[in-house]
Amino acid sequence: MQNNRLAVHIWDLPTRLFHWALVVCIVGAFVSVKLGGLYMDWHVRFGCTALGLILFRLLWGIFGPRYARFAQFLRGPAAVAGYLKGGTAPAGHNPLGALSVVALLLVIGFQAASGLFTTDDIMTQGPLFGHVSEAFAGAMTSWHKLNEWVIIGLVALHLAAVAWYALVRRKRLVRAIITGKVDAKDVPAGTPPTQDGVAIWLRALLLGACVTGLVLWIRSLEVAADMSFS
Fold this sequence. Notes:
Layout: E1 7-9, H1 13-35, H2 40-63, H3 70-73, H4 77-84, H5 95-114, H6 134-167, H7 173-179, E2 181-183, H8 198-220
Antiparallel strand pairs: 1-2
């Protein structure tokens, strides 16, 4: 079978919604922490939502359709080297892009998880701050602040790569993650479309409901913290 279609459906709806929801959370968390004050409540909300999204994506990387699965796009060093030398990119994430995905999931996941234990020593703390020691909370707060710069760097690289693909390789990655469709010329001949539809959406809703329940349970553990650590 040849790719005689104008576009191939690669990205399922839950994967696309995850991507843009995470963008909103990252921007919202960054803006709210810079504004400070009462906006810190929103920072915590964005952080907890980001945690839920990362957990969902990890599960979706196992139970999602073809191109969302880690087993489909994670490749070893040889595949990355081959791609950098001009090898044909597979449908979905290319070997180099896959590393970017994993790196972003890890650093954003750490940021969201560490935020559960942090404090600004004024009026805001993470939901689990009152359940850990002063030393642990202090360490998490420090790493949380430092990791912000790692996220900024990775996001900048991600945006630069998207721009490079658009201007040099003429690949419209932003459009693809909005519509789910990739130009047929940008994928190997015979590439099958992803599974997408009611059954996939219901699976995503089930996983999303489980993750939401977990995050809400974590929020319910918040206690009035003694800021003096006495």
